Amino acid sequence: MSSIPRFVAYAGIALAALGASTLGAPLAAAEDPPNCTPADLLGVTSGVAASESVYLHTHPDVNDFFNGFKGKSRSEIRSAIDGYMAANPDVKADLDGIRQPVTDFKERCGVAVSPIN
Fold this sequence. Notes:
This protein has 117 residues and is mainly alpha-helical. It has one domain: F1FO ATP Synthase (Up-down Bundle). 69% of the residues lie in helices and 0% in strands. The chain has five helices and no strands. The chain has helices at residues 6-22, 38-58, 60-67, 74-87, 89-109.
């Protein structure tokens, strides 16, 4: 895995997605949905990253799985994750639940935020 902490990756993706989604949008802040600022997005993604960290620390088998991707291609990683989640539906449900605040933010604010899976 990369030496960049997941939070930094989340924050970068979140800011890029929010910036791209607002290009060309009118400057009428009153029309924006509530709690959809970059600060709100970073608050949500940092909370999700912290929860994922706790989950991985308390589930060493899952942590070991995600730690084994060094040197693999993106497609190999995606395939391995898909297979692991299919074989471990409880882990998938746990991680989906942890990531739900990001999904809620995307729906409420109309932005495309894709956390690294």
